[in-house]
């Protein structure tokens, strides 16, 4: 061992010891070393802020709720005896004092109540309802999925009856919400509510990627997609912050694409992939779904291309090679496969069995192409050959997409259907009709492959912009443009004769208010606009080579940034009077730019 290697070991060891000492220094000394070793620090940040708007009160002509505007002011979270002005809530006989607050945007976290005097000798009883919409806040729990307005406490408690302290504070909730309704439940009781602050719990990381153009609607869509994923970057990468607070490998793919374009290398992705392998060891499928094991391979490929982390890829090598064997052994010489009885792409496509079959087979081809490339990177030629043979077998028996946009998109991306044919005959037919929030990303990618950039941008404005028009601050688990007909926005009480955009729609597992209005898989336009409008495409692993090829469509200019392992790439594209695009690119010296 030479002198340089000894110095490196000394520095690394010192840094580890210093980090360990810092952790121990933050723990009170009465805890034993054994206990400290079992502790886990919270890696997320917590902040408090008041509501922006009072949506509604049940005040009994001012007799039951007074001074509710106090709840819109900033506070310090400290109860006191100063008899400061509070929101006074008093229950009269056979009537309930209620306040419905709007915190302005979807968040993940809970609620802090700061209380003054209460007339009851016992702790007062309140009902707290969190909602992603006004309608959800006003809903009753209904565990029969066949009913309109299906509302549950599944995955996260959002409808809670609890006692609150006199001259004290309490924190409630761990869910996704924008609105909170507070009901005082005890008769002939008065409480003094000094503060009702939202608790935002989030991963404190910078937005390294950015997008700005002369169309504010597209800017807002890009940022909303980024924020949707950011909220789902909790301890692990979730699918939704209210329902589906779980690791779903298929749903992760659009989220990972967004993370790469907005946040760059973030530990939540490898950490989540590690846990997924622990939860679903071979020969199990990821999430017990064969399609989601295919997405696992695709995610690994894309994550390596962006970050170039060969150590992480090697860490998963045994699992990757074992998964390839599992898949290959279920495909015969004639291209017939029996990966699983149930095929799944996304919920809106479930009705089209023939189309799902075609799309599922295309997903296998896509995953095996990425797997072959991974194996070559890992110097595993035998496994690479297995993946290539698998593709050859499957392509002997290509199915028709049966007019299913999800299927045609996967087939185009997998290279087994001409993108222009896919768009002209299926994907671009009737515009945004038939789009979905998850697979819409792959429909947009197919339009890009076909050169239909303007059509894709128009659909982004109409479809994802439609959610914004209905009051969305994050993108939803599912959306259909037809839902907008005679529907009220999610941030208002639904007038008589109109539909509730949240409670009256949805299907499958997301009927009514169970529908998640913050689902990471819906962020596709953010990644798509960074790649195709800003025109930033990673060509070699680790972003060592990047191609800049913007497609402005009807835009006059666009500018933005893109995170890489070497730093930020900055671009600005301006359309001249003759229609040509003039580009300015600023990139770290380690990156080769191709234009």
Automatic annotation (TrEMBL):
Q: Which residues cross the membrane?
A: none
The record's section on Pfam families has: Bac_rhamnosid6H (PF17389), Bac_rhamnosid_C (PF17390)
Quote the InterPro entries the UniProt record gives: 6-hairpin_glycosidase_sf, 6hp_glycosidase-like_sf, Bac_rhamnosid6H, Bac_rhamnosid_C
Alpha-L-rhamnosidase C-terminal domain span: 535-590
Q: Where is the Alpha-L-rhamnosidase six-hairpin glycosidase domain?
A: 208-380
One biological process term from GO is: carbohydrate metabolic process
PANTHER family linked to this entry: ALPHA-L-RHAMNOSIDASE SIX-HAIRPIN GLYCOSIDASE DOMAIN-CONTAINING PROTEIN, C, PUTATIVE (AFU_ORTHOLOGUE AFUA_3G02880)-RELATED
- Record-given protein name: Alpha-L-rhamnosidase
Q: Which organism is it from?
A: Bacteroides reticulotermitis
């Amino acid at each position: 061992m030479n002198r340089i290697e000894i110095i490196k070991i000394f520095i690394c060891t010192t840094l580890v010891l210093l980090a360990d000492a810092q952790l121990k220094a933050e723990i009170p000394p009465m805890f034993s070393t054994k206990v400290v070793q079992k502790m886990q620090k919270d890696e997320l940040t917590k902040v408090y802020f008041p509501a922006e708007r009072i949506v509604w009160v049940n005040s009994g002509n001012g007799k039951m709720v007074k001074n509710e505007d106090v709840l819109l002011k900033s506070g310090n979270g400290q109860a006191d005896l100063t008899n400061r002005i509070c929101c006074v809530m008093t229950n009269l006989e056979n009537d309930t004092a209620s306040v419905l607050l709007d915190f302005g945007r979807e968040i993940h976290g809970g609620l802090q109540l700061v209380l003054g005097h209460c007339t009851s000798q016992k702790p007062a009883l309140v009902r707290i309802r969190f909602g992603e919409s006004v309608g959800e806040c006003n809903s009753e729990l209904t565990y029969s999925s066949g009913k309109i307005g299906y509302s549950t406490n599944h995955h996260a408690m959002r409808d809670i009856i609890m006692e609150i302290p006199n001259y004290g504070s309490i924190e409630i909730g761990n869910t996704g919400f924008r609105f909170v309704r507070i009901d005082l439940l005890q008769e002939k009781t008065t409480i003094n509510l000094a503060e009702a602050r939202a608790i935002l719990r989030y991963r404190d990381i910078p937005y390294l990627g950015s997008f700005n153009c002369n169309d504010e609607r597209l800017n807002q869509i890009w940022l909303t997609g980024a924020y949707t994923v950011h909220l789902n970057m909790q301890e692990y990468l979730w699918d939704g912050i209210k329902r589906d607070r779980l690791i779903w490998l298929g749903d992760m793919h659009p989220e990972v694409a967004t993370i790469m374009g907005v946040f760059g290398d973030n530990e939540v992705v490898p950490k989540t992939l590690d846990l997924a392998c622990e939860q679903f060891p071979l020969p199990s499928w990821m999430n017990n779904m064969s399609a989601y094991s295919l997405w696992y391979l695709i995610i690994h490929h894309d994550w390596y291309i962006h970050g170039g982390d060969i150590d992480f890829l090697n860490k998963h090598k045994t699992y990757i090679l074992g998964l390839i064997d599992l898949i290959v052994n279920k495909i015969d010489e004639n291209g017939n496969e029996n990966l699983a009885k149930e095929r799944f792409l996304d919920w809106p496509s479930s009705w089209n069995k023939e189309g799902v079959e075609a799309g599922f087979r295309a997903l296998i081809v896509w995953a095996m192409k990425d797997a072959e490339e991974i194996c070559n990177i890992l110097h595993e030629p035998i496994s690479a050959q297995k993946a290539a043979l698998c593709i050859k077998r499957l392509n002997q028996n290509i199915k028709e997409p049966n007019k299913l946009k999800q299927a045609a998109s996967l087939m185009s991306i997998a290279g087994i259907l001409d993108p222009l044919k896919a768009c002209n005959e299926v994907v671009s037919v009737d515009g945004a009709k038939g789009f979905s929030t998850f697979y819409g990303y792959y429909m947009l990618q197919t339009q890009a492959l076909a050169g239909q950039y303007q059509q894709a941008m128009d659909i982004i404005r109409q479809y994802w912009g439609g959610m914004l028009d209905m009051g969305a601050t994050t993108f939803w688990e599912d959306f259909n443009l037809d839902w907008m007909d005679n529907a009220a926005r999610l941030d208002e009480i639904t007038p008589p004769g109109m539909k509730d955009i949240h409670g009256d729609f949805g299907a499958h597992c997301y009927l009514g208010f169970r529908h998640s209005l913050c689902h990471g898989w819906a962020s596709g336009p953010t990644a798509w606009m960074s790649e195709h409008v800003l025109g930033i495409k990673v060509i070699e692993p680790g972003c060592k080579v990047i191609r800049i090829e913007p497609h402005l469509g009807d835009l006059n200019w666009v500018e933005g940034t893109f995170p890489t392992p070497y730093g930020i790439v900055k671009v600005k594209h301006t359309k001249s009077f003759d229609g040509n695009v003039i580009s300015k690119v600023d990139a770290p010296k380690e990156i080769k730019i191709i234009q």
